[in-house]
């Protein structure tokens, strides 16, 4: 049966960037989500995919606004929903604002999870919480794609290969923003290789990547670096407005 993900060679990620983040965030047995700000990190990853596919670009001549290059459907439900939103917005907006807007798409995490269900990587279940509420959980049934992406992330940081996979670099940057690197590396590894992780996360180790994707990668990495500050500001604004409304 043909899945919505195409066949990849052995070194490429077997899932899309935003699917990889959801896989890392999902607890393998419990099927519940770990990490921080997953919706916004997933949003940044969807935009990274579209940037690297040359479907959208950041226009430096127009205040770094995100613009659509090709609005034709990709065949991926999540990416097509995002692409349609960007294409139909009357005024272009910045990458940062799009991350916030896409992060607020209802049930974004679940939409991504359902794609992974279709591909047979996880399964969808409902469990009772406090005997009253039901919660959708997604236990893993095919561990190979996640095992492979963890292997590639570890290889990038620990083995320091000369040739860097752009998607793996972005995945490390986004996983760092979502506090998911602890799912891939031990505390000692994170401490020992902090400088390497920081350089990758800031897009400083992308010299070997072909020039046509460098701008897209750096735009995506820029969002990854900004995410924690953006989320902190959003959280502060939310708590401030809720406290003033009491």
From TrEMBL:
Gene3D superfamilies: yeast vps74-n-term truncation variant domain like
InterPro entries according to UniProt: GPP34-like, GPP34-like_sf
Membrane topology per record: Peripheral membrane protein
Gene Ontology biological-process annotations: Golgi organization; Golgi to plasma membrane protein transport; Golgi vesicle budding; retrograde vesicle-mediated transport, Golgi to endoplasmic reticulum
Compartment annotation: Golgi apparatus membrane
Organism: Pseudidiomarina sp. PP-1MA
Keyword match Membrane: yes
Name used for this protein in its record: GPP34 family phosphoprotein
GO cellular component, one term: cytosol
Signal peptide: none
Keywords from the named record: Golgi apparatus, Lipid-binding, Membrane
């Amino acid at each position: 049966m043909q899945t919505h993900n195409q066949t990849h060679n052995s070194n490429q990620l077997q899932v899309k960037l935003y699917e990889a983040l959801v896989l890392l965030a999902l607890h393998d047995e419990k099927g519940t989500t770990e990490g921080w700000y997953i919706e916004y990190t997933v949003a940044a990853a969807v935009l990274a995919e579209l940037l690297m596919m040359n479907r959208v670009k950041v226009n430096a001549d127009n205040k770094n606004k995100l613009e659509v290059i090709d609005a034709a459907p990709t065949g991926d439900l999540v990416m097509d929903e995002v692409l349609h939103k960007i294409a139909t917005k009357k005024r272009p907006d910045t990458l940062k604002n799009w991350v916030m807007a896409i992060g607020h798409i209802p049930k974004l995490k679940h939409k991504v999870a359902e794609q992974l269900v279709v591909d047979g990587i996880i399964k969808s279940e409902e469990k009772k919480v406090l005997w009253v509420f039901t919660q959708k959980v997604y236990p893993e049934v095919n561990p190979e794609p996640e095992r492979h992406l963890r292997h590639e992330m570890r290889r990038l940081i620990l083995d320091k290969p000369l040739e860097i996979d752009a998607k793996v670099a972005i995945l490390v940057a986004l996983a760092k923003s979502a506090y998911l690197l602890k799912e891939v590396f031990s505390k000692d590894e994170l401490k020992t290789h902090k400088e390497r992780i920081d350089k990758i996360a800031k897009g400083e180790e992308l010299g070997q990547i072909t020039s046509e994707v460098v701008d897209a990668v750096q735009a995506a990495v820029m969002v990854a670096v900004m995410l924690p500050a953006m989320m902190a500001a959003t959280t502060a604004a939310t708590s401030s407005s809720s406290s003033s409304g009491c």
